[in-house]
Amino acid sequence: MTSFGRPGSVGGAGTVVRSMTDDMIAVTVERCHVLGPLASEDLARLNALRPHLARAALMASRLKLQRAQSAVDILSALRLPAAAVGPSGRLIVTNPEFDALMPDIVADVAGRLTFTATTATKTIRELLADDGAKLPRGLSFPLRLAAPRGFAIVHVLPLVRDGRDIFASATRLVLLTGTGFGPGGDSGVLEGLFDLTPAEARVARALLAGGSVSEIARGAKLSPDTVRGQLKSVFRKTGTRGQVELVRLLGGIGR
């Protein structure tokens, strides 16, 4: 460990460990300046602990990486290509369906997710630029594919709160739906994929079936305001900004 600090401030010692995802894990030990600087024997004791701290940090990083891989692999059951990406589009984990799109549709160029369509790459780069926001927005955009696939829709979903714990250093989940991808799923797919409540999933499926807010409200014997509130929650959880984007997203997943 290396000591740090200056007179009149908090002092201590710190060390840096590289994680499984190439992130740097900083471990610091601090104490008030009135106790004086760390003596050489203090540093020696801390250095003796460093290997144990490094192993603990690496084990935690490896566990999170495995959890992230498992979460992305779940989408393989729906035949949906998916990847978790970090800041600036760095690929963290991918599933086999996503790997199969390389290099014809997507690529890992200089450690960053890139599409063969330059407009799609520009779109996702602009979206990733707001990762520093407290609640970054999601986005869905079309992607033209070579025959016989035709087209796909790229969904870029922000990972917040508990999602960040699962996906380690990732900030976004990228998945593709559309022609040739994800021909459906059972009634629990929406709940599990986006953490929707049963009521929210029912509203989402009714909207996908072409129902209006008033029709959904009458069918469920709810007020239109209640349905609108549930829809707002669905928009937030799926990273969509309106009914059109939501239908595009769910069209390739919940059919």
Unreliable parts:
163-167, 183-187
Q: Categorize the overall geometry.
A: globular
Kindly, what is the distance between the CA atoms of the first and last residues, rounded to a whole number of angstroms?
56 Å
Helical proportion, percent range = 40-55%
Number of helices: 9
Note the main attributes of this structure.
Arc Repressor Mutant, subunit A; 3-stranded antiparallel β-sheet; 5-stranded antiparallel β-sheet; 9 helices; alpha+beta; globular; 255 residues
Q: TL;DR of this structure?
A:
The chain is 41% helix and 22% strand. It is α+β, with helices and mostly antiparallel strands and 255 residues long. The strands form 3 sheets. The protein has a 5-stranded antiparallel sheet with strand order 5-4-10-9-8, with helices on both faces. A 3-stranded antiparallel sheet has the order 1-2-3, covered by helices on one side.
Protein model, in words:
The chain is α+β, with helices and mostly antiparallel strands and 255 residues long. Strands 5-4-10-9-8 form a five-stranded antiparallel beta sheet, with helices on both faces. A three-stranded antiparallel beta sheet has the order 1-2-3, covered by helices on one side. A two-stranded antiparallel ribbon has the order 6-7. It is built from nine helices and ten strands. The model is unreliable at 163-167 and 183-187 (pLDDT under 50). A hairpin with a 2-residue loop joins strand 6 (106-109) and strand 7. The chain starts with a strand and ends with a helix. The chain has helices spanning 40-74, 96-99, 118-128, 162-166, 189-194, 198-208, 213-220, 224-238, 243-251, and strands at residues 2-4, 11-18, 24-31, 82-85, 91-94, 106-109, 112-115, 139-144, 151-158, 172-178. Helix 6 (198-208) crosses helix 8 (224-238) and helix 6 (198-208) packs across helix 9 (243-251). 32% of the residues are buried.
